């Protein structure tokens, strides 16, 4: 298998990732709704036609990560993959706004659920591939696999490529200078367990659903601080 190229495409304030692999290319997450044409224009910039996209992987099904999935599936003919614990959310086009992990975001989450429930809605789509355990990407000629990484949501998944990089959705939030801790999380102790799982893979390059790539060392420093406060289950 040839080495793949990973391209980060910011869509709104979230990231979509293109794993460029000829006519077996993969999209990971699809950003905020109403950006399908923008995403396809970015793909063409990197020499990827709509028909080259063979698979769309949802790291989780929040509105800022699944907003264009239905439209992109229709435009590309790609299969859609999701964890079984969030397949019904994708099929409904709605996932509940996650819990806040700190005082401020707890307030924001509570307010959002009461005032803006429609904000979290997007076009529904039935997934094609539903997983519940480690899943190889060999079918798409890619040296990598999908790994359940719960915590942010129960059905969060990450994509490991060539044992040297991981695309981890909202397991991390490397937007602020001194932390990669996500401000929204349904189960923080479980997330700490997931962080340990990821760091034990000894993968140096980590891509997240928001913000730029960061290195394992930065994540480990944050983990050591948070682990003491939120002990894993």
Compact description:
This protein is α/β, with parallel strands linked by helices and 233 residues long.
Helix and strand arrangement:
Blueprint: E1 5-11, E2 14-20, E3 25-28, H1 36-45, E4 53-57, H2 63-66, H3 69-76, E5 79-83, H4 87-92, H5 103-115, E6 129-131, E7 135-136, E8 144-148, E9 157-161, E10 165-167, H6 188-199, E11 205-207, E12 214-215, H7 216-229
Structure description:
This protein has 233 residues and is an alpha/beta fold. It has one domain: Metallo-beta-lactamase, Chain A. It is 29% helix and 22% strand. α6 runs antiparallel to α7 (216-229). The chain is globular, with a radius of gyration of 17 Å. The chain starts with a strand and ends with a helix. The mean pLDDT is 92.
Question: Could you give the count of β-strands?
Answer: 12
Percent in strands: 15-25%
Widest sheet: strand ordering: 1-2-3-4-5-6
Number of structurally distinct domains: 1
Major sheet: 6 strands, mixed
Q: List the total number of helices.
A: 7
Order of helices and strands: EEEHEHHEHHEEEEEHEEH
Percent helix among the residues?
25-40%
- Overall SS class: alpha/beta
Instruction: Return the CATH topology.
Output: Metallo-beta-lactamase, Chain A
Given as residue ranges, the uncertain stretches (5+ residues, pLDDT < 50) are none
Supply the CATH class: Alpha Beta
What's the rounded overall pLDDT mean? 92
């Amino acid at each position: 298998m040839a080495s793949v190229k990973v391209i980060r495409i910011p869509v709104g304030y979230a990231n979509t990732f293109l794993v460029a692999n000829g006519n077996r290319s993969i999209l990971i997450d699809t950003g905020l709704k109403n950006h399908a044409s923008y995403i396809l224009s970015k793909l063409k910039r990197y020499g990827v036609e709509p028909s080259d996209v063979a698979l769309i992987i949802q790291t989780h099904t929040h509105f800022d990560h699944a907003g264009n999935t239905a439209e992109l599936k229709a435009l590309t003919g790609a299969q859609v993959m999701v964890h079984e614990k969030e397949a019904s959310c994708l099929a409904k086009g709605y996932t509940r706004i996650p819990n806040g992990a700190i005082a401020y975001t707890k307030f924001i989450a509570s307010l959002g659920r009461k005032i803006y429930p429609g904000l979290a809605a997007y076009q529904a789509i039935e997934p094609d591939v539903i997983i519940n355990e480690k899943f190889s990407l060999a079918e798409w000629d890619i040296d990598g696999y999908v790994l359940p990484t719960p915590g942010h949501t129960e059905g969060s998944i990450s994509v490991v490529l060539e044992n040297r990089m991981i695309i981890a959705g909202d397991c991390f939030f490397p937007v602020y200078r001194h932390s990669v801790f996500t401000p929204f999380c349904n189960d923080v102790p479980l997330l700490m367990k997931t962080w340990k799982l990821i760091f034990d893979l000894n993968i140096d390059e980590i891509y997240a659903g928001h913000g730029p790539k960061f290195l394992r060392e930065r994540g480990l420093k944050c983990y050591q601080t948070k682990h003491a406060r939120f002990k894993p289950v």
